[in-house]
Amino acid sequence: MKKRALITGITGMVGSHLCDFLLENTDWDIYGFSRWRSPFDNIEHLLKRVNEKDRVFIEYADLNDMASIITILKKVNPDYIFHLAAQSYPKTSFDSPIDTMNTNILGTARLLESVKLLGLKPVVHVCASSEVFGRVSREKLPINEECTFHPASPYAISKVGTDLVGRYYAQAYGITTMTTRMFTHTGPRRGDVFAESTFAKQIAMIEAGLIPPIVKTGNLDSLRTWADVRDAVRAYYMLVTINPIAGEYYNIGGSYTCSVRDMLDTLLKMSTYEGKIEVQTDKERLRPIDADLQVPDTTKFKNHTGWEPEISFEKTMEDLLNYWREKIKKGHNFLTR
Question: What is the Cα–Cα distance from 296 to 261, expressed in whole angstroms?
Answer without folding.
Answer: 19
